[in-house]
Amino acid sequence: MGRNKKESLIFTSMMCVLMVFGMSVYNVMIFSGLTRSLLGDVLATLLPALAVALVCDIFIVGRLAKGAAGKWLKPDAPVIQKVLTISCLMVCGMVLCMSLYGTLAHYGFTGNFIGHYLKTAGLNIICALPLQLLVVGPLTRLLFSKLFPPHSAVSH
């Protein structure tokens, strides 16, 4: 979303912040359980994870997802089909990237790295897809449309 690069960066940043926060809560709960230190543990890891997510989104996953969706969908496809296709592709790509980051951060590059990575990615897709499609995506689009109305009246 966004009519220009500035708006697109704001939209991407909003989406990343909400997804990284939601997925961080989920992953900390999986790793440590529901503890009193949950919010502190999430906040302690939020900025590095957000930085990695933004880089992956802007430079890798976003480009690949939009490119693939552009090739798979007809130009006159309904907007909802475009949104859902790009969202699903983004989730898949970001889960692969962020699960790699999480696996390295929590387990390091050990002998069972591939097993840890596959388990992490499998657990993450279970949460990330519904989180994106049902909560974060709609909420981000709503907030963004309030900040940047689609048909702003231009005064002369």
What distinguishing features does this structure have?
mainly alpha, 4 helices, 0% strand, globular
Q: Can you tell me the number of structural domains?
A: 1
DSSP summary: helix tally: 4
Global geometry: globular
Fraction in beta strands: under 5%
Detailed description of the structure:
With 156 residues, the protein is mainly α. The protein has one domain. 81% of the residues lie in helices and 0% in strands. It contains four helices and no strands. The chain has helices at 5-32, 38-72, 79-107, 113-147. Helix 1 packs across helix 2 (38-72) and helix 3 (79-107) packs across helix 4 (113-147). The protein is globular and about 50 Å long. It starts with a helix and ends in a 9-residue tail after the last helix. The mean pLDDT is 93.
How is the topology of this model organized?
Elements: H1 5-32, H2 38-72, H3 79-107, H4 113-147
Helix pairs in contact: 1-2, 1-4, 2-3, 3-4
Care to give the gist of this entry?
With 156 residues, the protein is mostly helical.
